[in-house]
Amino acid sequence: MAAAPLLIAAMAVSAFGAIYQAKAASAAAKTNANIADQNAVIERQKAALDAARHRKQAAKTLAGIRTGYAASGVTLEGSPLDVLSESAFDAELDNQLIRYGGELRARGFQNEGMLDRQRAKRATFTWQVERWSRYDGFIMKPRRIDVPASRLLNVSAYKPGDFKRFFLDPR
User: 121 near 148, Cβ under 8 Å?
Assistant: First the structure.
């Protein structure tokens, strides 16, 4: 008879620990979302700097080509002009690819942040239940409950008998 109050107390402590763990996981997910947002900003800034550095290097290269043509007495008409314009086009294309790659990486960080924010809004409780299988004997089956984090301590979020799913799963 004395075991019943101890069992109830153990269940209460276990439930409190699960709720505390869910709140800690929610806080960690929010922190991860903020870090992902910061990484997205940093990635965009890095892409802009890399593009500016590339543009400056391309301008130096094009100036060297022009200087070489002028030193050898070639006029910027016909084939030399085509080579120069193609080099400028390639440089600008590379510049746009640098910016595009940075934007893709930044969006990846933003998507990661959105997923972390969604994880922060839900608490997931998982446990194992022993079940008899005719072929395998006793096996452990995973069970899980998802609860909105905003209703975690709200008694109305739970239906009568929900606690049984944690401890006594009749299936």
Answer: yes
* Rounded-to-integer distance, Cα 171 and Cα 141, Å: 10
Question: Is the distance from CB of 47 to CB of 99 less than 8 angstroms?
Answer: yes
Q: What is the DSSP letter of 133?
A: E
Among 64-73, 75-84, 99-108, 122-131, the range with the most confident prediction by mean pLDDT is 99-108
DSSP secondary structure code for residue 127 in this structure: E
Q: Are 101 and 47 in contact (CB under 8 A)?
A: yes
pTM flag (> 0.85): no
Q: Are 19 and 152 in contact (CB under 8 A)?
A: yes
What's the mean per-residue pLDDT of the chain? 80
Give CA–CA dist 103/44, Å, rounded: 6
* Tokens describing residue 154: 């709200």
Q: Which amino acid is at 45?
A: Q
DSSP string, 75-117: -SSSHHHHHHHHHHHHHHHHHHHHHHHHHHHHHHHHHHHHHHH
Distance separating alpha carbons of residues 121 and 114, to the nearest angstrom? 11
Tokens of 47: 């892409």
| Residue 105 confidence (pLDDT) | 93
